[in-house]
Amino acid sequence: MSSDSRVSPSPESTRRVNWSSACVSAVALFVLGLGVLSALAAGPLHAQCSVIWTINIPCFDASSLLVNQIKGWTTESCPPKSQKCLYSLVAVNGDDIVATHTTPVMRFVDDITFNFSTPNADSCEIQGHSTSRSWYAIFDSGTNYLNMHNLMRGSGLSSSPTFTESTTDRVCTQYSSTRQKLDP
Fold this sequence. Notes:
The protein has helices at 11-40, 59-72, 143-155, 175-181; strands spanning 48-55, 87-93, 96-102, 109-117, 124-132, 164-166.
């Protein structure tokens, strides 16, 4: 008599193990793909932009200038080849401005926020963020940067001799290539 007591797995348990292995492999491949994509990407994996500006004026004044500029560009009629329209002021809450910008041709909507803080009595730090609502947007030809840049320029804040801007391609989609195309 043989005392071999090995039991063969049932076909059902074999299918369960194969299905589990396939799921684990798919998840691992997905995570690996995201890792490789983010390592190769020159910027965020979603169309967005974060910028920090400083200027030597009170934050209340800087905020007022930006709010007025947003209100001034709510118009539906856009100048040719311009994005200086279709802004909408959503809210002003304490140190925050919340707005949207709709692109004139494709009607994509971007959410914009500005946060104001006073690092010292003589200056204002403005943290701006613009992000595309379209979940599939990866590249935006600098649109999210331009949403905020145009407001800084239109409001006159960027013409101050004390105005500084800080961002990189890592946190602002296509920043460098967009910045090179702008007038000084």
